[in-house]
């Protein structure tokens, strides 16, 4: 029987068994140091969040893009979150919308901690269907879609949502899964798409 933990995730026996080997493998990530806190750097701060879904899971990842007064730009991974797809079959566009709602919650939480409410906020998805829903009024859709749209639009009313090609979406790494050995040397996951350095867009 599945049990719900304090973080709100549903953990089955298979999922718990899969996680048993994780603690012993974190040493493989030892070459990566923590990202500096925002207060350690001076300059313009711009959060960028990415969302993605597969039939197995949906995921989000947030990066902080900082630009110093001299124009030096650095992009660092700030937070990520993944949830297992429901056992009840849900269409992929709806899972992509769930990923967008998860991203909205994660970014709102980061805002509350860092006090970055006034920073311009850019959120990315590779689902044109989910983006079309997000840009519409919740009343235009049935309950499942409308509830998630309402959450997204209420929690982050000023966010700019953009389309990103799937090959440039780092959240894809989490929604589809990566081996630890692949994760260590995966620049897209650790540093986001290279075009984020120049703000030129995909």
UniProtKB/TrEMBL annotation:
Signal sequence range: none
Family annotation (SUPFAM superfamilies): Ribonuclease H-like
Spans through the membrane: none
One Pfam family this sequence matches: Peptidase_A17
Region (Disordered) location: 1-27
Protein name: Gag-pol protein
Organism of origin: Lasius niger
């Amino acid at each position: 029987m599945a049990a719900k933990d304090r973080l709100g995730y549903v953990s089955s026996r298979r999922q718990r068994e899969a996680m048993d080997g994780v603690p012993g493998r974190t040493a493989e990530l030892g070459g990566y140091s923590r990202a500096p806190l925002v207060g350690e750097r001076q300059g313009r701060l711009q959060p960028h969040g990415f969302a993605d879904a597969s039939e197995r899971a949906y995921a989000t990842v947030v990066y902080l893009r900082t630009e110093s007064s001299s124009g030096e730009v650095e992009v660092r991974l700030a937070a990520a979150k993944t949830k297992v797809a429901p056992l009840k079959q849900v269409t992929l566009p709806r899972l992509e919308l769930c990923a967008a709602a998860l991203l909205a919650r994660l970014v709102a939480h980061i805002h509350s901690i860092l006090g970055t409410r006034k920073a311009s906020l850019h959120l990315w998805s590779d689902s044109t269907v989910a983006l079309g829903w997000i840009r519409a009024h919740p009343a235009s859709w049935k309950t499942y879609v409308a509830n998630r749209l309402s959450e997204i639009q209420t929690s982050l009313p000023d966010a700019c949502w953009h389309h990103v090609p799937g090959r440039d979406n780092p959240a894809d790494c989490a929604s589809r899964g990566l081996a630890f050995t692949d994760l260590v040397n995966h620049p897209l996951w650790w540093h986001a798409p290279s075009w984020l350095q120049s703000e030129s867009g995909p």
